[in-house]
Design a protein that fits this description.
Blueprint (H helix, E strand, L loop, with lengths): L2 E3 L1 H31 L7 H25 L1 E3 L14 E6 L2 E8 L10 E3 L3 H6 L7 E6 L2 E10 L1
Parallel strand pairs: 1-2, 4-5
Antiparallel strand pairs: 3-4, 3-7, 6-7
Helix pairs in contact: 1-2
Length: 151
Amino acid sequence: MEKYLTQEGLEKLKKELVYLKETKRTEIAERLEKCISFGDLAENSEYHETKEAQGFLEGRILELEDLIKNAVIVPEEIKNHFAQVGSTVLVKAGDTTQEFKIVGAEEANPIEGKISIDSPLGKALINQPKGVIIEINAPSGKMHYKIVKIE
């Protein structure tokens, strides 16, 4: 399945993958060797914890490899005047103005103002031009946002 990423997001995933493969794998292998040297593995809780950590690590490596392989890179510069993945959108809700960057789900980080294309707001913003008022259903009720600027 295709995953939408910005070039910046793809680079972060690639760096994480290299770190996990080259550093974390080695660290876990060394921990396992140390645990095995203690003998009786049946009652060695540190060995079992390390094996579990190894399983999580390998799962994350597979996940990252899949994300990178299936990544669809969205251009940083959008050539039209409609909100797209990769767009930075300035919206106004009441007296509050907020800036959001629309990204793929893997890059979403609301604290940094990066919203997923799959989020209610992300879905509502996609393909909308400047000046449009969109409405989304939030837990607190309906919210209205006016698109002030698209970059």
